[in-house]
Amino acid sequence: MNSPKDFLQLTELLFPELDGSKSGGDPTYFESIFPERSLPENAFVTRLGPSPTGFIHLGNLYMTFINEKLAKQTNGICLLRIEDTDRKREVEGAVESLISQLVYFGVNFAEGVMYDEKTNAISEKGNYGPYYQSAREEIYKTFVKQLVLTGKAYPCFLTEEEISAIRETQEQEKLTPGIYGKWAKYRDRTVAEYETLLSEKKPYVIRFRADAPDGSQMEAMDGIRGKLTMPKNEMDVVILKSDGLPTYHFAHVVDDHFMRTTHVIRGEEWLSSLPIHVALFEALAWKLPIYCHTTVLMKMDGDKKRKLSKRKDPELSLSYYRQEGYHPQAILEYLLTIINSNFEEWRMENPDATIDNFQMTSEKMGTSGILFDLEKLQDVSKDVLLSIPASDLATFLLDWARLFDEEAYKVFSADKRKLEQILDIGRTGDKPRKDLAYAKQIRDFISYFYDEFFVIEDAWPENATNDVSLLLKDYLESFNLADDRDVWFDKIREISIKNGYAAKPKDFKKNPDAFKGHVGDVSSVIRIALVGRASSPDLYEIQQILGEEITKTRIERSIT
Questions:
Q1: pLDDT by residue (tens digit) across 87-132?
Q2: DSSP 439-484
Q3: Is the distance from CB of 135 to CB of 255 less than 8 angstroms?
Q4: What is the pLDDT of residues 62-73, one digit of tens each?
Q5: Which residues pair with 163 in a beta bridge?
Q6: Cα distance between residue 318 and residue 316, in whole Å
Q7: What architecture is domain 454-560?
Q8: Domain 298-387, CATH 2.30.30.90 — does that match?
């Protein structure tokens, strides 16, 4: 058995560089420079810890929104930490893209890694950094050293070939794969043996020594799932890799302690790792944060649920929502409907309140696959867009077009006031229009207002096909942009009667043989000539926006 003196000797062999560091390898140094935060009682300190791998998806936003809102509503802190210890997977520009995408969708970090799009500059804000894990090597090694010093960690010289052979044997014997028990052949070597192996310059990692009795159980409280009972950790997991950087298991434990994280909100795929993390906190004698394991986002595929897939589902990527032009406010509103089961009831009771007034709780979060429904998102988006003033909606549409539709931007931006008038059609009254959900859809829907995009898409009404030119000539002769709505429609009735069409649809229905059609058919002829479609918002308002010259020109074009 190694003695405390032996472990001290081993740490000197493993971590000679710490002697000349700021901390001198003393754990108490970091406790002093990262003190407990001065925050209100029960304030949440949450964090997002993404790897800079480049793909920004809906799950990132979902998780960030939960973290930020829970912190914000408790007067706490939500920070961004970049977990960049896996250098092989790092993608250039990934951090900048991650932050700009999340900020665009309305979530911000109070602390951590920051990005200024205007200057293209990365910075760090806060007193608990560095916020890149790759810059925290001294901190991690100090506490790996402490675990070695107390006999709770050891160097392991197993090669990749040896580990592969162990896994193959375990598979054949139907055993749990991993390094533990008899497979952990370097855990109980003497210091002399370790010294010999180190002198031979053999690559090694540092493993955490699992000392839980076989089959022993642990209990932990999950902020979403309540009390969990699961097997204690029995694996000698790697905590420091051969390149001197920590694994996720160890790094996040150290960082969450010294950044004073109170709640670790993460996906349910990390549930199986919870015993490892609990064991590490216990080994370091640190207070355990509250872990909250969210469920996965799923979608219906036929009659079955499945996880959203990067390969199969474009809607998993955040770039999809930017390209389609979903308003950030609509995305967050929808996310709340799937995050907290009581949000929709709250929204019905508070139709005009902002989502800042809604109190999110972990207790109301689901524990089984959450169904992400694109159609439901669109329904929510229609309500949200209706609540946004036309001037703000016009600005949003122009910002979208500037990035994704250069031609539309050029046309729409020429007259913003006209664009606002177009977007404001039908948004008032007892039954306001709720048929538009995202910018690309809006662009297509309002295109007929602009000659650059105007085309006749629909066929003339069957009952009036032979009278199109006749009806339009009469309309052109009677047209006066200054007419009020009643006078304007009375003229359409007169044109209808003059040309053998019923003044009211019900009259035609009662006696179809007496008329060619009805006033609705005549209105449709005028509508198609002006907007190119059989269906549109209020035609009178459309004409007011088009103006006299464009209205007359379009009518004339359809007269043959």
A1: 778 888 999 999 999 999 999 999 999 999 889 999 999 999 999 9
A2: HHHHHHHHGGGSTTT----SPPPGGGGGGHHHHHHHHHHH--TT--
A3: no
A4: 999 999 999 999
A5: none
A6: 7
A7: Orthogonal Bundle (1.10)
A8: no
